[in-house]
Amino acid sequence: MILLAGFVLKGVLQAALVISAMAMLGLLVAPVGWLSSAAVVLVTLVNGYRQGLVTMAAAFAGSLLFAMIIFAGTGETAADFPALAFELVAYIALLIWLPAWIVAAALQITVSLKLTLQLLTGICLLAVAVFYLLFPDFGEIWRGYFDQVIAELAGQTDAETLAAIQSMEDGLIRFLPGLFVSSLMFGTLVSLFLGRWWQAVYFNPGGFAQEFQSLALGKTMSLVALAIVALSLVLHSFVMYAFMTVVMLLYLVQGLAILHAVFRIKAMHVAWLVLVYGLMLFIPQVMMLVVFVGLADSWIDVRQRLAGADGRRS
After folding, report:
1. How far is the C-alpha of 250 from the C-alpha of 18, rounded, in Å?
2. Helices 81-92, 49-72: crossing angle, 10 deg rounding
3. Which of 35, 182, 197, 219 has the most C-beta neighbours closer than 10 Å?
4. Stated pTM of the model
5. What's the CA gap between 219 and 224, in Å, rounded?
6. Are 18 and 35 in contact (CB under 8 A)?
7. Contact between 297 and 254 (Cβ < 8 Å)
């Protein structure tokens, strides 16, 4: 991936080629799409937000060409290629590249990871509210798919389990706007961190690790997050559940920053860190514990306490 970043930094055309190619490959393998937006982040951080926009425009043109080639192999009418390609690339630009450019521009201007993440969280909370206000039936788009899945399960599960799945369907459909926004936020975070790491490798080796491990979102943000969690538990509103998902994702990042810092302070083997990540994937309670640590750190300052204790021992 380091070589890919070096190629991106060679110029606008090279960056646009990587951004557009990775975006198209991301349609087949979703995580590859993060490389596309990470390249947007890298260009914006290194060359400024204006150059980031220019590169995105070039990537848009390149992606249109790639998309038309893709549609040519699908059997669609040739006259429909331009419209279909434009629609596809417009979605990619608005949902993947634009959020990456916004956070990269914010980080480049403020030089503050804390403010950048708070801005991203605010945008995502606003996006959740807009979705529920303007597109209340957004989740209904997927009802046919869920009905099909349930129909396929009907012959494979007992009646009680099937009834439980059916009862969950409405709730999941109502929660889909929040899930959609949270997934976009997650992808933007991954792209931001990957792009920032690429920048550090070439211009400030070790700088990203230091920046990430020292991340502190502050007490005010913690109080906002706790208020959202409390309201979601009291009101049992899907809008509040969606808000809660957004802030929990933010504090998962904070918790991971603390986790990395603790492993560095204690000089623990990287295998333990990999183990924790693995446990988070398979045991949700471990992930919730990391979120809790992220929230609590605003008051207990885990890193400072550990660093102070180690200093006294030495």
Report:
1. 28
2. 140
3. 35
4. 0.91
5. 9
6. yes
7. yes
